[in-house]
Design brief:
Layout: E1 2-9, E2 12-20, E3 27-31, H1 38-46, E4 53-56, E5 64-66, H2 79-84, H3 88-101, H4 108-123, H5 126-139, H6 156-169, E6 174-178, H7 186-197, E7 202-206, H8 210-216, E8 219-224, E9 227-232, H9 235-270, H10 277-289, E10 316-327, E11 330-341, E12 345-349, H11 356-363, E13 371-376, E14 382-385, H12 389-393, H13 400-406, H14 414-423, H15 440-454, E15 458-462, H16 470-481, E16 486-490, H17 494-500, E17 503-508, E18 511-515, H18 519-526, H19 528-534
Parallel strand pairs: 3-7, 3-8, 5-6, 6-7, 12-16, 12-17, 14-15, 15-16
Antiparallel strand pairs: 1-2, 1-4, 8-9, 10-11, 10-13, 17-18
Helix pairs in contact: 3-4, 5-6, 9-10, 13-14
Length: about 550
């Protein structure tokens, strides 16, 4: 629980007088706009942030587990050891126990110590520890045959899976998870949902995945107006309840203002009238007693995203004619043929590392196929949002205005650039920030601003919802759904895919499978076969 928690950075107040209690057995989805302090709040609960006033109270013997973000911390450790190190007490006991057993001969004192260690090791579940850690790793699609490999041999996304296994392995009483679904595929997100919904402790999780929050959360902790309010139910329940509560406040204030105006009119008309002066005074007192409810400005602001096109599309947009692609001996796809047409919203799906980005880049002509050819229709012009922000923004770091101005038509007035940045929530002095200091979500919004300015008729997006808050995801989702051109995208956000895709392309077994229909239609058609495919071993190389 927290009492009077207040945190300020300079002139900016993140939290003010937050007093809240998290109850045993409840799973809280912590939501709020980017920059409101969700991650900072978790760090405070984890004891990693101390520059606040007020107090944090954690019951005696309650263990807190926090999902680490530094995936290079354990580079020289094996994958298994990185997980086992999550339980510090058991890890230290295990190391001392192994050391003593490794001696050629023990003293009497060391023999007594081994007996003590054996008892502690057993009490803490040491004999089952590797088996349990292995189950967690398998659940997160890290196969048994590489558990003894060092962390340095796997990609960044899989390092984060190991860190997730590490915090789950601790079996803490309070589990703090900051964006645990980043870099997970459909199968592992589903596994994590099942794990968390059967977990006995308190869970506080931050996620931009609406489907995940809806599945996991028993309560929503809404960080807004510099405070936190708890709502029972999942994200959809919260949206309904919070919207209704705010509308009721607005309606009540409107009623009060109308009453004040009515009373004030009487006071103004009759205060100088001797026969009605007493009534006027009485009504003036009534005005003083009417208090308007404070409706603070919400930190939850949505960008205004609309994609227009300057050149109409013909019917045939992209034709991939028997294309193949491989990296060394790793074949991504062979002999793939696709015909993508005007107005389609095409989702590329598959397990992590299978080659979704490779196919998207090939269709966008960012990569050449090894054989075959990709042809675009005569009127096609493409705007592409890469998953790697460095690829999208470049290495240098001019201001936001300067960066966006580079891609504008030569006669574009600066006021047009500022207006576009404002719609992407970069108003005033923010437009003069260097691109190098932007958060992940801000970088994505800036790249979306460029796509808006491009006015292209084909949009390619690689994991566009990564780093965006829920409001920005919903704004992007709607903008793409009404876009008159063609959209081709990769996403692990199931709500985003389900609500947007009119066509599904799945990569597996070096094949590109094309399905004309929605994501839900595809799951209904493929059924258990689809889930068998995504339950196969993950591809552990860095996805090309």
């Amino acid at each position: 629980s927290t009492s009077g928690l207040t945190l300020r950075y300079g002139k900016k107040t993140l939290f003010e007088n937050v007093s809240i209690k998290f109850k045993e057995g409840c799973r809280y989805g912590l939501i709020g706009a980017n920059g409101t302090g969700k991650s900072t709040f978790l760090k405070i609960l984890a004891g990693l942030e101390t520059t606040f006033s007020g107090s944090i109270s954690i019951d005696n013997n309650v263990r807190v587990g926090y999902l680490k973000q530094d995936h290079f911390e354990y580079e020289n450790e094996t994958i298994m050891n990185a997980v086992l190190m999550g339980h510090k007490e058991l890890w230290e006991i295990s190391k001392e126990r192994d050391y003593l057993y490794g001696l050629e001969e023990m003293t009497e004192e060391q023999g007594i110590r081994v007996s003590e260690l054996e008892e502690m090791y057993a009490d803490l579940g040491g004999y089952e520890s590797e088996s349990y850690a292995g189950e967690l790793l398998e659940g997160l699609a890290i196969p048994t045959d590489i558990h003894r490999e060092t962390m340095s041999t796997i990609s960044g996304g899989f390092k984060l899976r190991v860190l997730l296994a590490q915090v789950l392995y601790q079996k803490p009483d309070v589990l703090l998870l900051d964006e645990p679904t980043n870099h997970l595929d459909i199968k592992t997100i589903n596994w994590l949902e099942n794990f968390l919904t059967s977990y006995n402790g308190v869970i506080i999780v931050i996620s931009h995945d609406r489907h995940f929050i809806n599945s996991v959360a028993s309560h929503i902790a809404d960080l807004d107006y510099q405070g936190i309010k708890i709502y029972p139910g999942n994200y959809d329940d919260f949206m309904e309840a919070s919207t209704m509560a705010r509308e009721q406040l607005v309606a009540e204030n409107k009623r009060k203002k109308e009453k004040i105006a009515e009373l004030q009119e009487f006071v103004n008309r009759f205060s100088a009238n001797a026969s009605k002066a007493k009534q006027a005074t009485s009504r003036a007192r009534l005005i003083d007693k009417i208090k308007l409810d404070e409706i603070k400005p919400s930190s939850r602001v949505s960008p205004y995203i609309r994609f227009n096109i300057k050149t109409p599309l013909g019917k045939d947009v992209i034709h991939a004619d028997h294309i193949s692609k491989a990296f060394s001996e790793n074949v991504i796809f062979k002999n793939a043929e696709l015909n993508i047409q005007k107005g389609e919203k095409v989702a590329i799906i598959g397990t992590n590392g299978i080659g979704k980005t490779t196919l998207l880049k090939t269709l966008m002509k960012q990569l050449d196929p090894d054989s075959g050819v990709v042809n675009w229709g005569a009127s096609v012009n493409v705007s592409y949002l890469p998953q790697d922000h460095r690829e999208g923004l470049g290495e240098d770091a001019p201001t936001l205005i300067e960066w966006l101005y580079r891609y504008a038509p030569s006669d574009t007035d600066t006021s047009i650039i500022r207006g576009l940045l404002g719609r992407m929530l970069f108003s005033g002095e923010m437009a003069k920030k260097d691109t190098s200091v932007l958060s992940g979500g801000e970088k994505v919004r800036l790249m979306i601003a460029r796509m808006i300015m491009d006015e292209c008729n084909v949009l390619g997006l690689d994991e566009p919802t990564n780093h965006l808050d829920l409001e920005s995801i919903e704004a992007l989702n709607y903008a793409l759904s009404i876009f008159p051109g063609t959209v081709i995208f990769v996403s692990h956000d199931r709500e985003f895919v389900s609500s947007l895709a009119t066509r599904i392309i799945e990569i597996y077994d070096e094949k590109v499978v094309d399905f004309n229909g929605s994501y839900d239609d595809y799951l209904n058609k493929e059924g258990s076969d689809f889930f068998k495919r995504i339950n196969r071993k993950a591809v552990l190389s860095i996805e090309q």
